[in-house]
Amino acid sequence: MPKRIAFIVPAVLFLVLAVTLWWGLGHDPSIVPSALIDKPAPAFKLPPLEEENPGLSEQDLEGQVSLVNVFASWCLPCRAEHPILMRLAEDDVTIFGLNYKDKPEDARNWLGRLGDPYSQIGVDLDGRVSIDWGIYGVPETFVVDSSGRIRYKHIGPMAPRDLEECIRPVIERLKEQGPGLETVELPASCQGSKG
Amino acid sequence: MIPEIGHYALILALFAALIQGTLPLAGAQRADAAWMALARPAAGIQFIFILTAFLALMHAYVTSDFSVLNVVNNSHSAKPLLYKISGVWGNHEGSMVLWMLILSLFGCAVALFGGNLPPTLRARVLAVQGLIGTGFLLFMLFTSNPFERVFPAPLDGNDLNPLLQDPGLAFHPPFLYLGYVGFSMAFSFAIAALIEGRVDAAWARWVRPWTLVAWCSLTLGIALGSWWAYYELGWGGWWFWDPVENASFMPWLAGTALLHSATVAEKRDALKSWTILLAIITFSLSLIGTFLVRSGVLTSVHTFAQDPTRGLFILGLLIIAIGGSLVLYALRAPAMKAGGLFAPISREGSLVLNNLLLMTAAATVFLGTLYPLVLDAVGGGTVSVGPPYFTATFVPLMVPMIVLMAIAPMLAWKRGDLAGAFTRLRLAAAVVVVIALGTWYLKSEGPVLAVLGLALAGWLFTGTLIEFSGRLKLFRIGMRESLRRAAHLPRATYGMTIAHAGIAIVVAGITASSAWQTEKIQVLRPGETVEVAGYIFTFEGTQELQGPNYTIERGTFQVSRDGAPIARLFPERRFYPVQGRQTTEAAIYTTWFADLYAVIGDADGEDGRVTRLYHNPLVPWIWVGAVVMAMGGAVSLSDRRHRVGAPARRRAAAASARA
Amino acid sequence: MKAALIAIALLFALPAGAVEPDEMLADPVLEQRAREISKNLRCLVCQNQSIDDSNAELARDLRILVRQRLVSGDTDEEVTQFVVARYGDFVLLKPPFKSTTYVLWFGPAVIFTLAAFTLVVLQRRRARVEAKPLSPAERRRLDSLLDDGLDP
């Protein structure tokens, strides 16, 4: 009998493989979860887009739950995401902008044309600060709690579904429970959720 | 009209495959000769229909019929004819047609030349082939129709990715598929044997030639792919342990193990259920490779929208084909009678160790390729598995493998004489010492591993020669007598010797090129010179030229050594306006002991150019060695015992002798 | 094959090697260290390439960053950790040795040992069950038959 078991092993191993591959089909391998989740935002100081405005530093992130959105006028998906940011801004969500490797003039035109959802913007001309944030593409969006800790990251443009199922719930819970909230429970469809 | 003929031909081929896959199987079960006899004509008809579809698609490409979506997406009227033809399989849908063409060609070959097979075995083998064909034809017709029309037809196409407009890559897929699909023959024989519940030496003898064909083709296919990477990617790298490469390397490793275990099954009637399992695994790895490459599981779905139904469909096929065959194996294999016994130190024992090492290597590549996916699936986070992992795990497996390769052929079947083998290998040991010391002396700055690598190559090469001359009793009997023995040696023996020598050449090439590459990256103005590993490269400037569907920037280098001119090199950068892409064409001058390799990059704004110059020692040996290995396989294939029909003739001869 | 070919194209789409002369450090020892470090850091935007092989912009930024850290006196390990702190273990082409990767690192040895063990056990059991010792005469005859050098 034990000999028979040896002959069943290949089929069992294949079963495990098939389940893994099935899981893999519904999974986007290009999304790399952030290493900074639940860590304080990195220290940085960036100049503003318009001279009369303040720039952006990690101190600005403290005191309220906020989004930090990485954008650029040359990035097409940012254009697709833009209306969603505008809607969020109307709902009194604080959004900070990180303008990634853009010509300030282009960025100003872009925001002038489409509307400016950002309460403050930092200009990252050489992309150095973005590396500290672990950014590897535009757009990317972080949810930061009121103590300045990064709690969630969305890679790529936000679709309405991402907003309603992942980002809004995270913001709501952080607002209700404060930065002491230990773990943010997420539906399986959200990026970075386990399983 | 012609595309519709192609489409209908695919549908008709599906019916032929369905008949081929069902009735003969039932016929073999019920001992119904008429139903079994359907297998052969059905295989022939299936092949003819798929050939029709293939030619119809090729016609659409050659005539630039832009009413066919596939042609629009992958061709352009200004493309050279060669790449119009290779464009047929340079895309997902078209490559599936090629896949099916080769599958049905193999089926057809069994139908034509399998006259000596027992009728039930032949019917079952062809039926399994028919079932595989059915699965893939369904896949094509439902998710990947190559003949889809587009209306209105655009004026011109989007062109083929310029990286694929290259002679190396034009022929890479056909060889690769001959390999992948060729292993389906071993698979079909294995399934048929499991159904019959009987495996004997004759079975192994029938399986071996098909496996050899597949193995040779896959060897050449992989070599072509890596050669392409070497000259096209612009920095002399030739293997990246990328999932796409691993997908082709895993079946190669398993197929190599299969070739060796089939020898044991044939000669000694042992390792039978293991050989069956290897046949299933080898083709399964080919199928899994196809899945990995086409489903987007391991490559980015981000950049290129993939149809998720395709992935699901192939996964379904995998589960039916692999899962089904492994369940069949679990049910039927335990009942198989084990064959001849052997001592641990014997030819069989060494081939078992060979299989153990090769399959561990295949499992390691598999683990490295799929572990990131598995870990992510169980919520363990993301990791990357790159070249450093594969080097660290693969080398320790290959070192004993190569040591063993020189010893194993000297051991006798059933019980071998290890001490005797070592005595015969004294010369090889001496070669190892000389190479190790020589390398150490000449290249003291190199890594220790490189000394080991070259020494191993020397060990294997010398050991292989010693073994071969031992068979001729060279220098022990007269020259004439040795030649007589040489003439009577089976071709399979020559094949083994050649293939093993090829491995030694590859090992030397891999070792030297990875350990002692010289690289010089700099900006050069016309007239300036750079020294690379003793060669003086003089940059003479660039000029602009026009290709058929691209523009060229061509640089010129004069290479000299000790004042004597050696070569002129013309590296190019090509711009393909239709796709807006640029490619680099490295210029290579080979001395066969090293390649001088030049690439030009961007202009620096003034008259300078970024230039990358390389000296790659022994790198040509990698591909020379691979070709030698494939040649070994081909020579072995020509052995009369493997020739199709040989067993029948022998039986006939035996019968007439008895009569 | 489209996916396969595109995957290759994606991996290698950008022509020529990646490191540009203007990024390189004057000090050859430092530059060599930078190359070795970059070869083990994965480019995030280009599937399976190291930042040393990729001309993606981010890869270039990271190469320059690696060199800056080296010039400012970091050890190789510190430079690597600097990047890992920002992008996670994903950037290491050689996976780190920790609990989640034990399977990966011990896997080959375990597979080999298990398979070898199974084989030995099966072979022994068979030998015990089936082996009937040969008579000395049979053995001599067998040996002489098997020693025929012509049989490959």
Summarize the main sheet of chain C: none
Oligomerization: heterotrimer
Measured by DSSP, the beta-strand proportion of chain C falls in under 5%
Strand content of chain B: 5-15%
Low-pLDDT stretches of chain C are: 1-16
User: What is the averaged pLDDT score of chain C?
Assistant: 78
Estimated radius of gyration of chain C: 27 Å
Structural class of chain C: mainly alpha
Query: CATH fold name of one domain in chain B, please?
Result: Four Helix Bundle (Hemerythrin (Met), subunit A)
How many distinct folded domains of chain C?
A: 2
- Helix- and strand-based class of chain B? alpha+beta
Distance between the termini of chain B: 60 Å
Radius of gyration of chain B: 27 Å
Count of DSSP helices of chain B? 21
> What is the ordering of alpha helices and beta strands of chain C?
HHHHHH
CATH top level label of one domain in chain B: Mainly Alpha
Beta strands of chain B, count: 10
Average of the residue pLDDT scores of chain B: 88
Measured as a percent range, the helix fraction of chain B is: 55-70%
In a few lines, what is going on in this structure?
Chain A has 195 residues and is an alpha/beta fold.
Task: Write up what this structure looks like.
The complex is a heterotrimer of chains A (195), B (659) and C (152). By secondary structure, chain A is an alpha/beta fold. Chain A contains five helices and seven strands. Chain A has one domain: Glutaredoxin. The longest helix of chain B has 32 residues. Among the domains of chain B are: 160 residues, no CATH class; 192 residues, Four Helix Bundle (Hemerythrin (Met), subunit A) (Up-down Bundle), CATH 1.20.120; 103 residues. In chain B, helix 1 packs antiparallel against helix 7 and helix 8 packs across helix 10. In chain B, the strands form two sheets. In chain B, strands 2, 3, 4, 5, 6 and 7 form a six-stranded antiparallel β-sheet that branches. Chain C is mainly alpha-helical and 152 residues long. Chain C contains six helices and no strands. Chain C starts with a helix and ends in a 6-residue tail after the last helix. The interface between A and B is medium-sized, with 26 and 39 residues.
